[in-house]
Design brief:
heterodimer; A: about 475 residues; alpha/beta; two-stranded parallel ribbon; about 45% helix; elongated; B: about 150 residues; mainly alpha
Chain lengths: ~475, ~150
């Protein structure tokens, strides 16, 4: 199966990958123009390995992979949840390691102290470095990233081509594979990493096996422009007042120099949310934002592009795309999005959210239902590692992701996530659920669909697979009947 | 068959009322009709109606617990109890000859009529249980009820 290598650079890269992971869990497919699915190979480039944005993305992807491996993916299965493969075998740590960035400052990294002539006086290199980098730059620690300084990132990130992981990427890259790069333009890591990565892909070392495929690969990228702000903090090197000017400068650079991508997506929003000012580490935990979800949709769109080609490292043409919504609203619901977005995400999101709500609010009370008794789903199953660790953790991460988008500004709040067992199907805002004529309602109706499908689900596979298959089949029909989707 | 079933409970409502419902005259000759056929079909019909109502009409995920099945069983049982007792009392006041009312085997009193209703209750329970276990398997939401 063809692979789509997704490079997530910096915090924004991690957060967009997080959104993509959630979308894929709901059943959003990453397919080419003929409907063949891609395997996703996530690669994160971020010196700040402790960043919460990165660690929780990796955790979600690890849970996703465990769940994916526990269920079947043949044509007999109807389940769309977790149906896209995330390949974490090629880059097992997900991250491209950056060496010598811990506990040293930038001037040590570039060896500024050694830039001296025979008389032990600063030489020309020292003078050049002093022009390119301010005192603050030179004293900057890099263990939490480049703190909004792309000029530092450009130097430090260049080392990733010397890693085993980079070699594995090149060696595993096949002819039909594609590359997508996610980066922000207003920070440090993403803004410096994107042009650098692109250059290293197109000018890949020709002695390495698989290099021709990489050089002539189809590359897409999304450049995320400012969509949030950070609170002013004198002690922080991150100053959001420079976001716009940095963006302008970088766009100007892109205009002149970024001509090696086959598809370039731009996205941004009016800045209306101010996050806590964190330079990095475990406190850099930005709430999920709709922009990241929309950026993840760029990956889905890019995968489906069929008429892109590259020869000799030069794309035949570059397509440029931006993202828009139908209605300008501070709190987006499905009807505020355009038809294409709704076609892609509406049904999967509703289905998976309903699945998560059922697990949260009802499952334990329904273990005496025929579907559970017939298929032997009992307390032992609830305590199994599949359910209690991977699925449960992923469900919590998914609900947290929704909550964060719900509470962010601009909010993406298509669901009422507060428990309401007496009016379950009103949880989709702006949608009037259609009546289903039977004696049961709410979760009792949900159980009715589960009971109905339990007789139809194939029992020739592992319990985990049957569980996912049963729930998908029931929810799919339920959502069709209630929301006409 | 129905006569035999009612015979199991004849000690509850007395030999004289049993003889009357069996269609015997005061000399022990069969003059008909055998009322147990009527009672049996009524009990069977009500039980079947309640079982079908529970498993295929209500057929609810909220009402598929052991206690919901028990409620239906008791409704069926009490319906038969009152029907049986009412018919016995009506006969007691109208058509049962004095030879049975003052019979040698203890005769018939109102208590016997109510006890006949109780016998009808137990017979309908038997029907309900048998029908439940025959018909529940094709119910989508209640096949695990009562267990």
């Amino acid at each position: 199966m063809a692979k789509l290598y997704i490079f997530g650079i910096g915090g924004t890269g991690s957060r967009v990958l997080r959104s993509l992971t959630m979308l894929m869990a709901t059943g959003v497919k990453v397919e080419d123009n003929t409907g063949k699915p891609y395997d996703i190979v996530p690669i994160i480039i971020d010196p700040d390995h402790a960043a919460a944005d990165l660690t929780r993305t990796v955790k979600s992807m690890q849970d996703y992979v465990k769940i994916y491996n526990a269920i079947n993916h043949n044509n007999c299965n109807k389940n769309n949840f977790f149906s896209t493969k995330i390949n974490m075998d090629i880059i097992q740590s997900v991250c491209l390691p950056l060496e010598n960035t811990l506990d040293i400052d930038f001037k040590e990294y570039i060896g500024l102290q050694d830039m001296k002539d025979f008389n032990n006086k600063p030489n020309a290199n020292y003078a050049l470095a002093s022009i390119l980098f301010s005192e603050k730059n030179l004293d900057a620690k890099m263990d939490v990233g480049f703190k909004g300084n792309p000029n530092i990132g450009t130097v430090v990130l260049n080392q990733f081509t010397r890693t085993v992981e980079w070699d594995n990427f090149i060696a595993s890259f096949a002819q039909d594979d594609k590359i997508f790069i996610i980066s922000s333009i207003f920070g440090g890591t993403g803004a410096s990493g994107f042009p650098l990565l692109l250059k290293n892909i197109r000018a890949v070392d020709e002695n390495k096996s698989g290099c021709a495929n990489v050089k002539n690969s189809i590359i897409g990228a999304i450049t995320v422009m400012p969509y949030f702000d950070v609170k002013p903090n004198e002690n922080s090197e991150i100053d959001s007042s420079t976001f716009i000017s940095k963006t302008k400068a970088a766009l100007s650079y892109y205009e002149r120099n970024i001509n090696e991508v086959n598809a370039l997506y731009y996205i941004g929003d009016r800045i209306s949310k101010q996050y806590e000012n964190s330079e990095g580490g475990s406190t850099q935990r930005n709430a999920a934002h709709f922009i990241e979800l929309a950026a993840a949709l760029a990956i889905v769109d890019f995968a489906s592009q069929g008429d892109l080609s590259t020869s000799n490292g030069v794309p035949s043409r570059t397509i440029y795309k931006e993202y828009g919504i139908r209605n300008e609203s501070a709190e987006l619901i499905f009807s505020d999005l355009d038809g294409g977005t709704n076609d892609t995400i509406k049904k999967p999101l509703i289905e998976f959210t309903l699945f998560c709500k059922y697990m949260n609010e009802q499952l334990k009370d329904s273990l005496d239902q025929p579907w559970a008794k017939d298929l032997r789903y009992d307390r032992n199953f609830i305590r199994s590692s599949f359910y209690n660790t991977y699925l449960f953790d992923f469900k919590n991460a998914y609900m947290e992701w929704l909550e964060e988008m719900n509470n962010n500004t601009r909010a993406f709040a298509p669901f009422n996530l507060i428990e309401n067992k007496n009016d379950l199907f009103s949880f989709v805002k702006g949608e009037k659920p259609a009546p289903v004529f039977c004696i049961d309602s709410n979760y009792a109706l949900f159980d009715r669909y589960l009971n109905k499908k339990s007789g139809k689900v194939s029992r020739d596979s592992a319990k985990e697979n049957i569980f996912m298959e049963l729930f998908y089949m029931a929810i799919d029909e339920l959502v069709h009947d209630k929301y006409r989707l | 068959m129905f006569s035999r079933m009612y015979l199991w409970f004849s000690n509850m409502f007395g030999v004289d009322l049993d003889s009357h419902f069996a269609g015997l005259d005061c000399d022990g000759n069969f003059v008909g009709p055998d009322c147990y056929i009527k009672f049996g079909f009524i009990a069977l019909g009500i039980s079947l109606f309640m079982v079908v109502l529970y498993y295929y009409v209500i057929n609810s995920t909220k009402f598929n617990k052991w206690w919901s099945w028990l409620i239906m069983l008791l409704i069926s049982g009490f319906a038969n109890f009152f029907i049986g007792a009412r018919i016995a009392l009506r006969d007691y006041y109208t058509i049962i000859p004095d030879c049975w009312i003052n019979g040698e085997m203890g005769g018939i009193t109102e208590t016997n009529c109510w006890m006949f209703g109780l016998a009808n209750f137990f017979i309908s329970i038997i029907f309900f249980i048998v029908l439940s276990f025959m018909l529940k398997w094709w119910s989508i939401n209640c096949k695990r009820s009562p267990f």
